[in-house]
Design brief:
The protein is α+β, with helices and mostly antiparallel strands. It has one helix and ten strands, in the order αββββββββββ. About 21% of the residues have low confidence.
Length: 135
């Protein structure tokens, strides 16, 4: 192998970093409260489908909706800020990532257990009728 050639690990690592960057950019970057244009005005879930202290993973939209306390709804990117894996369904006010064990607070999206250190990007939502809508 020549000194100027990249090894398989370097190429895969660079590809992974680029993919993670694109995924976070598509979700509004780190911590932004801006919704993707394609999600703005969309109903993410019905209020009855999001339990208090839990949440609902909307896989096709890559969004997780939580209800940390009665009547308070939050929405976050469903892509872990560590390696871009899809997070799991929230329970007991924790959004888990089963890929590497990271955990996020259901009320703020803040990383509470690593390896992730950055918060999940958030979306502003409001309740309209019985739906949770991206603002």
């Amino acid at each position: 192998m020549s000194e100027n050639r990249l090894g398989r690990r370097e190429v895969l690592g660079a590809t992974g970093v680029a993919a993670c960057g694109l995924a976070l950019a598509a979700c509004g970057g780190g911590g932004g409260a801006q919704a993707q244009p394609s999600l703005k005005g969309k109903v993410l879930a019905k209020t009855a489908d999001v339990p208090v202290g839990g949440g609902k993973l909307i896989e096709d939209m890559k969004v997780v909706v939580t209800q940390p306390t009665q009547g308070v709804y939050k929405a976050f990117s469903a892509l872990c800020t560590h390696k871009g894996c899809e997070v799991g369904t929230p329970k007991e006010n924790v959004i888990p990532c089963h890929c590497h064990g990271s955990e996020f607070a259901a009320d703020s999206g803040q990383a509470t257990k690593g390896p992730a250190t950055a918060p999940l990007p958030s979306f502003k939502v409001k309740v309209e009728g019985d739906g949770i809508v991206v603002v």
